[in-house]
Amino acid sequence: MTAPTTGVGGALRHLAAYNAAAATRTTVELTRSAGHLWLDAVTRPRSPLKNAARGALWWSTMLDRREPRWHRANTIALTTPFAYLRDFTAPTDVDHDVVPTLVLPPQAGHSSHVIDFSPRQSQLAVLAASGLTKLYALEWRPATTATRDVTITDYLDLIDRSIRRMGGRANLVGDCQGGWLAAIYAALYPERVHTLTLAGAPIDFHAGESVIASSTRAMTGALGLAPYKALVKVGGGNMPGRAVLANFIAIQPQSEVSRQLQLLENIDDEAHVERYRVFEDWFKHTQDIPGAFYLWLVEHLFHGNELISGDLVIDGRRADLANITCPLFLLAGSADHITPPAQLFAAADAVGTPEAQITRRTAQGGHLGLFMGRDALRDDWRPLMEAVYELSASGAHPERAGAVADPGDTPRIPAP
Fold first, then answer.
1. A Pfam family for this UniProt protein (predicted)?
2. Scanning 84, 311, 325, 394, which has the fewest C-beta atoms within 10 Å of its C-beta?
3. Between β-strands 193-199 and 328-333, what pairing exists: parallel, antiparallel or unpaired?
4. How many CA atoms, within 13 angstroms, populate the side-chain half-sphere of residue 358?
5. Half-sphere exposure at residue 53, Cβ-oriented, CA atoms within 13 angstroms
6. Residue 218: what pLDDT?
7. By three-state DSSP, how is residue 193 classified?
């Protein structure tokens, strides 16, 4: 476990070292790609016209974006101005004797479709194939002028309404920001949470070495909330999704460079181009976050770290993680630069769940790979969700084959 950087000075030193390393990695990637393109030009010479056509195709592919969509069949069970409750339960599974499951996706300037990324890479498919067939997910809608004042209370009320609609008790699965939201809800309404699964979720926002934590510490230490309030003001009362995307790209510029240059190298490979399109369609399709909610989380969680300190109070009620006594499943990414494992695993020491009922697992890979990476879905999510199922139903286990298919030998698309 890496010790956290403390104080503005420590945060600035961490950011300087990280940015220097990122610049080196970007240079290495540019050098690698240049060498590959030179070798390709030598071994497979093309006419100037054909090279121009390939360049035009590369450019148009980078610019041609489609709106993300759900791949699994679903119906909208509940509608609010800032979210939908989607029911992914198949008609044949309505009568299954299993505790319902509610998934809270990340909310960081992107759409919720990452949990159903593609027909072959779907967190929802893994859950259903594991036996959790009564399956629901919240879809966060883009913030508008009408929803810019949505608060943490509104989000918690929505989760409660959703679980009541599902029968009054549910397995709760929270990814990244959806994870700390799930933890807060479970602390306030422990009787409604059957099991709690958190993946890549910051619980102790100051643990480990995180670029986001260091930048927040440096920013708020020097200027308070002023920079964040300014961003929200520019966004008309909301946090612009474009700004969040720019921040993610700035954190790992080598991933962006590598992804675009690999596209150029493989522009004639239909399988690679399609995988590129699927990722870019999700990653570059941004949506705004309600301004009041965003400023609240910066002040109380990123800056104040009140969830782990025990000082978080919402509507007069303290969100004490010790109230959580249900089975707890924690999934971290070994190379997660957004939420280092220490930020997630801190939950194990804060909850009231007996140690024997806490499962910690570390997947190989980074942040986004936890939610849509083929290896994490197949090798890590599957056993975790099968364990949740065993606690949620009795009787024979449903057929699990084919929950996640391997896309084959297509090179992976570099993702933050």
1. DUF3141
2. 394
3. parallel
4. 16
5. 6
6. 74
7. strand
Distance (Å, whole) CA 19 – CA 362: 25
196: β partners: 172, 328
Cα distances (Å, whole numbers) of residue 247 to 106, 215, 285, 357 = 16, 11, 14, 37
pTM above 0.70, yes or no: yes
CA–CA dist 162, 155 (Å, integer): 11
Question: What amino acid is encoded at 195 in this protein?
Answer: T
- Closest residue by Cα to residue 30 from 257, 272, 266: 257
CA 346 to centroid of chain Cα atoms: 18
Residues in the chain: 416
Between residues 44 and 67, the one the model is more confident about:
67
Torsions phi, psi of 376, nearest 5? -65, -40
List phi, psi (to 5°) of 188.
-90, -30
Q: In the prediction, which pLDDT does 8 show? A: 64
Residues 213-224 have pLDDT tens digits of 777 777 777 778
Q: Are 364 and 334 in contact (CB under 8 A)?
A: yes
Q: Can you read off the two tokens belonging to residue 330?
A: 């924690």
Identify the top-confidence range among 252-261, 264-273, 347-356. Answer: 347-356
Q: Which of 339, 293, 282, 238 is nearest to 110 (CA)?
A: 282
> Which DSSP category does 410 fall into?
P
